[in-house]
Design a protein that fits this description.
Blueprint (H helix, E strand, L loop, with lengths): L2 E5 L2 E5 L2 H7 L3 E5 L3 E7 L9 E7 L3 E8 L5 E6 L4 E6 L6 E5 L3 H11 L1
Parallel strand pairs: 7-9
Antiparallel strand pairs: 1-2, 2-3, 4-8, 5-6, 6-7, 8-9
Length: about 120
Amino acid sequence: MATAEIVGDGLRVRFARWERLAVWREEVTVPLARIRTAEPVGNALARTRGGRIGLLVSGVLKVGVWGLGTGTRQLVSVRRSAPALRIAVDGGEFGELLLSLPDPAGLADAIKARA
């Protein structure tokens, strides 16, 4: 499972070893100033759209880059029945991050407090 933490003036997301194969990176850092919204979401598996590069186990997990051909690329690491956080970003490589995390509401509040 990916982990996310606020480090300095950015949000750092680190991926598990096996996830790195699907997302093609070890970590990504998003400046807090570029985060438009951060909100906990339900049924994160249904919130991806468009084409993908990555891993899909139908109804169980999605890890990779979604949104190919839609104009908004999503960096995704979500699992069934796991709470998730949706982060909308202005500029940068990804327009949205969708992550299953242990405490998405707590991280969303921390991001809003720092923004």
